[in-house]
User: What shape does this take?
Amino acid sequence: MTEKPCDYTNIQSHKVHNKNILITGSTQGIGEQAAISLAKQGANVYIHGRNENKGRELVNTFQKEFGTKSKFFQCDLSSLPEVRATSELIKEELDHLDILIHNAGGYFRGKKFGSNNIEYTFTVNYLSGFLLTMKLMPLLNKNDLSQIILSSSSAHKSIDKLDLNSVETRKNKWESYARSKLANIMFSISLARELDDKNILTSTVHPGLIIDSGLLKHIPGPFNTIGSYTTKIPLPGIATKAEGAATLINAIYKNRPEYSSIYYNEFVPERPSNLAQNTTKQDELWEYSINSTNVTLPRNIR
Assistant: This one.
């Protein structure tokens, strides 16, 4: 029997009915699985991706089978101007946003760059999410309680120094992936500090090493050769797409927590690396992100 995210987490307990939820990278993989599960629970799930046919298919399913509101937004996250334009379309469509899930991203190799000649991995996995969050802040700031969830990875712990000059070399590699996931955690913590006493909460999630996500076949080392077999042979430490989707859903707060910026290693809250918690480096990343995206900060943020 096909596994579903609800097999791993009690999504019934999550109060998502009639909530407006935007999930980036939701036309495939764990983003798609999470979108379907949340729509089944009555959430209005808004889809982002590059596959227009798949996006419109999901919207049609949500509207006809589940009776929920939905719309597809096509956007290449390596292009910051495109992210800006898409944010305006989202603001035209929605009057508020309850949950923003930054799921899109991946592991990329070779010389490839995004906007402003910045490393492709850093742009897609982190900067695009920073920009989109800032542009959508007015929608998130309209509710009693809103949430921002960012996809991260335990790989962030392999980075012992944040060198932002490295993201301008445009040589995408494993270190690039790990650094971008570290940046997401640091952004989550910085944003929580900026939004102190506001009703917008943040969290980050390591969803596990996911079968058939496209990541395994690109990872150097042994996973590069065994990735094609993981859908058939259960391996320790390897998660299904359903399990990965469940980790995103699990991060949706059932009740208001005592503090924001929780980092989940799959389903378990834990402390991220010491570097991720370094406020000086968080501020350095924050300033770099503002300058790189040329974004005007919302009123409730410095």
Remarks:
- Residues 120-140 form the longest helix (21 residues).
